[in-house]
Amino acid sequence: MEERITFDSDGLKIEGLLHGAASGNAAVITHPHPLYGGDMHNPVVSGIVSSFQGKGYTTLCFNFRGTGGSQGRHDEGIGERNDVIAAIDYLKSTGADRVDLAGYSFGAWVNAHVSCGRGAVERMVMVSPPIGFIEFETVGSIECLELVITGSRDDIAPPGLIEKALPGWNPQACFEVIQGADHFYSGFLGDLTAVLENNL
To answer: How many C-beta neighbours within 10 Å does residue 135 have?
Structure first.
């Protein structure tokens, strides 16, 4: 059963959708760029959420500050990192034993700046990290990164650029390219969820 919840981040009320009892394994899922229409109801985000739920995870997706019903304003990815940490803390406060962190596009970029240790993240999953669109030079080693997925036709998260950057993020991470998919996974959401479910 999905429940609308709010949690605090820097004194702001952030809205989210919680599915499950928040005990055992849980996952926070972040959305694409809000200035380009991205929010927690994005179809790719929903696909990621359903993949984790299919593996028995409690899931929490939320709207970054200034998006939808979340208070505040867009903060160029800086304050949004605190939103991610606050979401992880919320799940842990409600009984989650371990929390994975997954993000799509802008959400993956924001997540990449959250320390695995600081956020107590067990595992990180990136879907189409937008390395062809947003600067990734500030992203260093991500020891909890286990899976990166993109499409062969994704010009915002080009496979070639990701392949070059991956050794600096985590050379042990699995990299999956979905043939024919672009950044929006139109017609390929089933392929995306299949790759996720096979690797979670």
So the answer is: 10
Q: Give this prediction's pTM.
A: 0.97
Query: Does residue 22 have a pLDDT over 70?
Result: no
Number of domains observed in the structure of the chain: 1
User: Which domain does 84 fall in, by range?
Assistant: 2-199
CA 45, CA 71: separation in Å to the nearest integer?
21
**Which residues have C-beta within 8 Å of that of residue 15, sequence separation ≥ 6?**
4, 5, 6, 62, 63, 68, 69, 70
Distance CA 150, CA 135 (A): 17
For 158, list phi and psi in degrees, rounded to 5. -65, 135
Q: Measure the CA dihedral 106/109/113/118, to 10°.
A: 70
> Across the chain, how many H-helices and E-strands are there?
5, 8
CATH code of the domain covering residue 61? 3.40.50.1820
pLDDT of residue 119: 60
Tokens matching residue 108: 């993956």
Contacts of 29 (CB under 8 A, 6+ apart): 40, 45, 48, 49, 52, 59, 60, 61, 102, 103, 104, 107
Cα four-point dihedral sign 109, 46, 171, 91: positive
- How do residues 121-180 score in pLDDT, each as one tens digit? 999 999 999 999 999 999 999 999 999 999 999 999 999 999 999 999 999 999 999 999
Type of residue numbered 70: S
